[in-house]
Every structure is written in C-alpha cells, then in structure tokens.
Design the sequence.
C-alpha cells in the first residue's frame, strides 16, 4: 500500500549547509499494518512521515501510495490526498484551545463543505468511538490532557482515513496517559487502519499488536 523507493531527502539550511535527513531509504508498509519507526530525535522518522503524508517531496526517489506516485503531486492535489487519506495525531495535539470539542473535531471536514446531517453523523460516530461525546460543547482549554488526547484522535478519524500517522504521540504524556493512548491505538488497528508511529518511547517496542518495528539512525534503516 505504501512504498518508499530509493528515497533521499536533503534540506538546504543555507547556501553552504545541506543536511541529509534520509539516505537511500527503501520501505514497504502493507494495508492494515501497524508499523513503529524507532529512533532518536534526528534519526529521520519525522521525515518519513512527512513524505507519506505528501507534506514534503523527496530530493530523489519515489513515494507510492495505492499505486499513486504522491511524491509527484502538485500542491493542490497533495492537499486533496491528505484530506481524503491521512489522519494526523500530533505530539502537542494541535487543537484550537478556544474552540469546543465538536468544533475541533469538525475542522478536517470544513474544506469538504459537507451536508450538516452528514457532518453530524461523522462527528457523533467518532465522539462515541473515542468516548468524548459527553464533552462535545466543552472548550478545549478546560479539558484534561487525556480528554484532549481523545479529541485529537477523534479529529484524526472524522474523515475515516485509510492511513493514521502519529509523530511522537506520547512525548508529552505521563505513563498512565501513554498506556491509555496505546489502547486507543489497538482499537484503531482493529478497524484495519494502516498506522505509522514515529517514536522513541520504549512502551511501543514490545506491543503484541504492532506488526513491525523499523529502527532508524542518522537517516538510514538499521
């Protein structure tokens, strides 16, 4: 489903300083797999996620998702690809603190301008799934960390994406909330989502429902 072929990614800091984030990476992720990218900060994990999400383009090589060469998509088509296929779970939630739970969850639907009934059906489905419906009208800044986490995961799934991308999702969580997140990840896996998690949290490395752990170091696969 997801294939990275001979990927190199370089970032030009300035005229005389080019950083190689990824070097000759080959990786395949099958539909429905949960893959953990393991490695320290700067190992290239986030660069892989960015390429899968078409947030950046490789310096060389190909990114192919469902037989589509997404690394060649113009920006407007890349945006449509993300909207229709990718659910993001961020390290810092990236919620809008002054909006309500339901307003935050509905944000990914705004570009689609959906019928109100359809939008409410999608909203109610994910709020119930992630047990945050009782907080629908609460303002984000008044929620606990665990509640905000539920909102972030509900928002990532409101479009029913095929692929879930999680970048260091437990970096700012205590162990209790981290374990809670892992249980929600287990539920997403049961829904046949393709999930890619970038983390250096050892809690992820021996989970029975993780299909593969891929270790990265200095932009290459170990």
Sequence:
């Amino acid at each position: 489903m997801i294939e990275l072929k001979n990927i190199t990614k370089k970032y030009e800091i300035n005229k005389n300083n080019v950083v190689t984030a990824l070097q000759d990476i080959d990786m395949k992720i099958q539909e429905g797999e949960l893959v953990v990218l393991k490695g320290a900060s700067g190992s290239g994990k986030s660069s892989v996620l960015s390429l899968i999400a078409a947030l950046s383009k490789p310096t060389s090589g190909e990114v192919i998702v469902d037989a589509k060469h997404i690394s060649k998509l113009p920006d407007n088509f890349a945006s449509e690809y993300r909207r229709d296929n990718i659910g993001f779970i961020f390290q810092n939630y990236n919620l809008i603190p002054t909006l309500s739970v339901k307003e935050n969850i509905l944000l990914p639907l705004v570009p689609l301008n959906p019928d109100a009934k359809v939008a409410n059906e999608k909203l109610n489905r994910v709020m119930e799934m992630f047990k945050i419906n009782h907080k629908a009208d609460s303002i984000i800044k008044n929620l606990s960390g665990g509640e905000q986490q539920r909102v972030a995961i509900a928002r990532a799934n409101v479009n029913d994406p095929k692929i879930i991308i999680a970048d260091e999702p437990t970096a700012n969580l205590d162990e209790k909330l981290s374990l809670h997140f892992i249980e929600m990840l287990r539920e997403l896996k049961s829904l046949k989502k393709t999930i890619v998690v970038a983390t250096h949290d050892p809690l992820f490395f021996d989970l029975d429902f993780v299909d593969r752990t891929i270790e990265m170091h200095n932009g290459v696969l170990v």
